[in-house]
Every structure is written in C-alpha cells, then in structure tokens.
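RECORD TYPE: inverse folding
INPUT: structure tokens
STRUCTURE:
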C-alpha cells in the first residue's frame, strides 16, 4: 500500500511563507495499491485538489471516504478536477447521520446554494453518496473498519484500512477528553481508539495542540500530541504520524515538535510531500 499525504492542516488553510515546507492544505490522504493510481481517498479537504496530479491524465475512478462533514474535510470536494469529469466515477462514503436526514442531504447542507454555487450531484461524472455505520466493509480492494470517535459537532469516524498486508489507522479529529481525563489528563484511551490503532503499521492521528494547549484543543474537539504517542505505545502501533496541524503552527514550530514527544514509538510530522510505502508485515 502506498499512502500519499496531500493535505495535513486542520480547521482552515495556512497560507504564507512560514507554512511552505509542511504545507497549508487541509486534510486529505490518497491510498493506492502498491504503485498504482490512488483509488481510495480519506477526507476531501483542500488537499484533494493535489490528487489530480497523481492521476493525470486519467480521471478518478474510486471512493472518497469522509471521517465527518466539517469544512476542513469536505471543502475541496467540488474542486477535485479528476473527479469533475465526464469519465469519472466518484463514490462518496460518510458517517450515517444520527438525525436520519440521510448522507446526501447531510453533505449538501454545506455544498449547495446559498453556501456554494452547485450541489455535488451537479458535478460531471458518475457521483453517488452513501452512508456507512460502524463496522467492517470492503471498498476498492481494501478492508475498512469504521470506529465512532468522539469529536465536537457531528458524528465522526476513525478508519482502519488494510490491503491484506499492511494497516493504516486514520483519526484526524479526536477528542478523548470528552470521555474523561484518562490516566495522563490528556483523555481516555478508550476502546474504539485502542481497537482502531491496534498494531497498525501507520497511525495517522490528530496532533492539533500541545499539552499546555489542552483547553483550546478540547473546545474545538481535538487531541494533544502527547496523547497520540501514548495511544500508539498502548496499542503497539509501529509508527505514528502527527497530522491535522494547527493552522497557526509555523514550519519552525513544527520542526520543534519532534523534540517534545516520546520517541519510544517512531514518529513523523506530516508534510504534504510525505509518501509512505507499506509492505507486508514481518510478523
């Protein structure tokens, strides 16, 4: 499995010279089988626009899997040029809304007039929108397990994706303090989080704040970086990638991030240029 990091910011874009090295686009990962074209995209923040270059000159023929419907995870969807073509196929999967409104209606609340000029169904190509519930399902040759994760402002999932050889766990928005302070004060290591991360080859996790910023992280429904490494250690994850960076966090501040955390688990600070190739497990 090949994992392309296309957008690594949270909340809103970060624009300016001080954000160039890590990148300023919001959440998006593209997953491919080995060296093939990406067929599974996790979240559709502004980073999804960069997936078009990975596919060129072909259209997108695959699935976009959304963790939730906040702006920074859907705003790039109508600007995804490889999906907005007559010859594209785009299946959008998102958490089934609790209110019974249905997935298409929920998505269109943010992508339709008067908030946006067009609805997703007006884009070119074959588009379909479906809801998913917690559990395991097959999509684009991957096995995906969806776990409901605490986060402010709507139903949110974390996803565990396997190609039969390697596992990527993805939890870009996670507020464990909403369940309780946990043993460290950073939030509970709850059942869903541990199951999501268990022995994963790559844990891509919310790293929005530092522990001294816990109050602001909790207000917006996020984690501190120290929780991410502690979760990886408790779940025996092989590598953790800090993701969903605060939009005000400069390149220099992100350079300093690695020095602040427990290196017992190999750790990477996500950049938009990061590509991770995951082969078969050794054990």
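DESIGNED SEQUENCE:
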């Amino acid at each position: 499995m090949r994992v392309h990091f296309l957008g690594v910011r949270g909340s809103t874009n970060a624009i300016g010279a001080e954000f160039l090295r890590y990148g300023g686009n919001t959440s998006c990962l593209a997953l491919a089988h080995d060296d093939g074209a990406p067929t599974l995209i996790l979240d559709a923040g502004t980073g999804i626009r960069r997936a078009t270059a990975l596919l060129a000159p072909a259209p997108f023929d695959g699935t976009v899997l959304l963790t939730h419907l906040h702006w920074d995870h859907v705003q790039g969807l109508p600007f995804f040029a490889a999906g907005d073509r007559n010859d594209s196929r785009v299946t959008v999967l998102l958490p089934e809304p609790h209110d019974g409104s249905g997935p298409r209606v929920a998505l269109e609340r943010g992508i339709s007039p008067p908030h946006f000029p067009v609805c997703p169904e007006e884009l070119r190509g074959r588009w379909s929108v479906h809801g998913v519930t917690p559990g395991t399902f097959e999509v684009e040759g991957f096995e995906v397990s969806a776990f409901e994760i605490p986060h402010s402002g709507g139903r949110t999932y974390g996803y565990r994706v396997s190609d039969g050889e390697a596992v990527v766990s993805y939890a870009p928005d996670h507020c464990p303090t909403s369940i309780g302070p946990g043993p460290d004060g950073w939030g509970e290591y709850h059942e869903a989080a541990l199951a999501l991360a268990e022995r994963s080859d790559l844990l891509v996790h919310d790293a929005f704040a530092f522990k001294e910023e816990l109050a602001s992280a909790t207000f917006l429904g996020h984690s501190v970086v120290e929780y991410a490494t502690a979760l990886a250690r408790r779940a025996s994850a092989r590598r953790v990638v800090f993701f969903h960076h605060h939009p005000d966090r400069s390149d220099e501040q992100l350079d300093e991030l690695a020095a602040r955390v427990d290196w017992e688990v190999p750790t990477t600070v996500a950049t938009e240029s990061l590509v991770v190739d995951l082969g078969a497990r050794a054990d």
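NOTES: The two ends are 17 Å apart (CA to CA).
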